[in-house]
């Protein structure tokens, strides 16, 4: 039986094929593997629930999930929260007594057999995009950081409140930056990626100049996938589409999952999940559920979800878009 995507106009999703354990057991989204001895955690306290949300982490190559769980438990004895966990990782934490719920669907390009598959429509878009420039990996020196910041202001979302703690905002350290450059070296689009597993990469940011020609994002993403595939990567995640929940067979939604799906219809003016899903689905990805995990000292609840919405900046984005929709001033958000 096909699997259903709740919370979007799409009817079905394609399950991800099984990979080697090195790819299957991934870090949460925006966590990354590094050369080091001990993990470094970035966190935010959620005072209402008593949990600490571990937003990002740099985790040594030698750390398996068991070691990571022990380190998290010791560092956050009152309870920790993780978002963006893939099914196998969420299952591991669940087996250690953690509460888990699905929060969205992650689009994953399978690079294990070479370049990612592309439909005739995407191949045509890539050919058109190549007329406008080239894809290059950009080392992050001062001039490149300035170009990156300028591009961000030229995007369609440049003046909106920025989401926090959901992705790495700057391509620093182990993150890699790829840009689509015009013939005059102007940045028309950029993608940043981090490495969350031995052979797995995660897309942090996708930026496009609002006045750039069409088809360049398709060309850029295809170019990034080609480079990573040639290096031996097994997958490239295009990130999560929130509030879109893959459910296998007749598996029912949990009460909190059902609540998110219902609320998502009220939030479409603030976050267009349908549009985001449609864009990522162009690349014929495998879709897998994305999970929120809370350690066994605390239960997931509507309070936790509300706190996350505030800390992520989603509540500010919702207010901004609502005021803009009804014609009220939004200058307080500048």
Automatic annotation (TrEMBL):
Organism: Prosthecochloris aestuarii
Pfam families in alphabetical order: LPG_synthase_C (PF09924)
Keyword Transmembrane helix: yes
Membrane topology: Multi-pass membrane protein
Keywords: Cell membrane, Membrane, Transmembrane, Transmembrane helix
Primary location group: membrane
One cellular component (GO) term of this entry: plasma membrane
Name recorded for this polypeptide: DUF2156 domain-containing protein
């Amino acid at each position: 039986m096909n699997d259903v995507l709740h919370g979007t106009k799409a009817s079905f999703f394609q399950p991800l094929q099984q990979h080697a354990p090195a790819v299957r057991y991934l870090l949460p989204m925006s966590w990354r593997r590094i050369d080091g001895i001990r993990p470094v955690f970035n966190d935010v306290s959620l005072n209402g629930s008593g949990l600490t949300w571990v937003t990002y982490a740099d985790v040594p190559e030698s750390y398996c999930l068991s070691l990571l769980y022990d380190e998290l438990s010791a560092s956050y004895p009152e309870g920790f929260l993780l978002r963006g966990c893939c099914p196998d990782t969420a299952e591991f934490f669940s087996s250690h007594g953690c509460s888990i719920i699905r929060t969205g669907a992650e689009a994953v390009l399978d690079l294990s057999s070479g370049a990612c598959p592309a439909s005739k429509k995407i191949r045509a878009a890539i050919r058109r995009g190549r007329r406008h420039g080239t894809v290059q990996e950009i080392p992050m020196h001062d001039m490149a950081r300035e170009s990156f910041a300028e591009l961000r202001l030229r995007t369609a979302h440049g003046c909106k409140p920025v989401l926090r703690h959901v992705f790495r905002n700057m391509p620093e350290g182990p993150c890699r930056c790829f840009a689509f450059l015009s013939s005059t070296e102007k940045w028309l689009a950029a993608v940043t990626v981090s490495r969350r597993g031995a052979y797995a990469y995660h897309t942090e940011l996708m930026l496009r100049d609002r006045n750039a020609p069409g088809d360049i994002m398709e060309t850029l993403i295809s170019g990034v996938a080609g480079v990573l595939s040639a290096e031996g990567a097994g997958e490239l995640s295009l990130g999560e589409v929130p509030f879109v929940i893959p459910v296998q067979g007749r598996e029912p939604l949990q009460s909190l999952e059902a609540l998110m799906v219902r609320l998502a219809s009220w939030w479409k003016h603030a976050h267009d999940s349908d549009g985001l899903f449609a864009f990522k689905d162009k690349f014929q990805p495998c879709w897998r559920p994305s999970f929120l995990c809370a350690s066994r000292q605390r239960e997931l609840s509507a309070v936790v979800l509300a706190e996350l919405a505030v800390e992520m900046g989603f509540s500010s984005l919702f207010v901004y878009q609502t005021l803009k929709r009804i014609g009220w001033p939004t200058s307080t958000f500048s």
